[in-house]
Amino acid sequence: MLPPALPDHVLDALLADDVPLGDLTTHALGISARPARMRLSARQPMVVALAEEAARLIERAGATVALLAPSGTALQPGDPILEATGPAGTLHRGWKVAQTLVEIASGIATTTRAIVDAARAVAPDIAVACTRKTVPGAKALSIKAVMAGGAVPHRLGLSETVLVFEEHRRFLTDLTADAIVARLRRTVPEKKVVVEVATVDEGLAWAAAGADVIQAEKFSPDAIGALVAALKDQSRRAMVAAAGGIGPDNAAAYAAAGASVLVTSAPYTAKPRDVQVMLEPA
Predict the structure, then answer these.
(1) Are 219 and 242 in contact (CB under 8 A)?
(2) 88 burial type by CB count under 10 A (0-12 exposed, 13-18 middle, 19+ buried)
(3) Quick check: keyword Glycosyltransferase in the entry (predicted)?
(4) d(Cα 278, Cα 245) in Å, to the nearest integer?
(5) Which of 61, 69, 76, 192 makes an SS bond possible with 94, Cβ 3.0 to 4.6 Å?
(6) Does residue 201 come out as left (phi exceeding 0), alpha (psi in the -120 to 50 range) or beta?
(7) Which CATH superfamily is domain 8-112+270-281 in?
(8) Position 22 confidence tier, pLDDT thresholds 50, 70, 90
(9) For 37-46, how does the pLDDT look when each residue is reduced to its tens digit (9 = 90+)?
(10) Class in CATH terms, 117-269
(11) pLDDT exceeds 80 at position 235
């Protein structure tokens, strides 16, 4: 079971944004107090995500909810996600926000699972790591969704990891690669040193300088293979992370090339999965 991504005050804010003063249509029709039931189910194959948040949101709206498919569950069309009972006005209040949360998050989780499955069919121990390039304001939702899909966060933010870009190195032209790595070892000794490179030669140089991870940006699978092969001749072998343009269609090729980690942002722009909602009198 994955931990909650959205606390109650965020769920309340989502409800307040969509339904600040109740559902006017339900009120005008005079059916707000009518007993009702609602079911969310998969309309297409998906890996469901944020089902817990959807259930809690509907509970916060005032209904009783049974969660039937926790985040990370692979569903087929017609499989249930959750069921809720309560007054019709309450269920109408929570319906659309809950549905949208699950649809967007499940799109991310489903694409993530496709990348993970494709890569691990070739290299069972490979890791898929998703970047911090989430939609601003949607990081918690997105990270839980990629974890539901079987990936791990690459970087949750700039404060927790060391990743040396060319944009950093331009300010340190008076220092060698060895000196830069040594400085990082002194200042943040408990952190791994990750360096992004654009060529095989750059990767070899930074590995020789002591970097723990060489993040190969926009390398082809052949170039990843060449880097991995060349690093085998070094006494201290750095890990190779392939990054840039990796998705379900080419994950297997990068895994076969020998990368230890696939770094991707592709799931964050995945098409939402379709969730069916049945809301009717109880």
Answers:
(1) yes
(2) buried
(3) yes
(4) 38
(5) 61
(6) alpha
(7) Quinolinate phosphoribosyl transferase, N-terminal domain (3.90.1170.20)
(8) confident
(9) 999 999 999 9
(10) alpha beta
(11) no
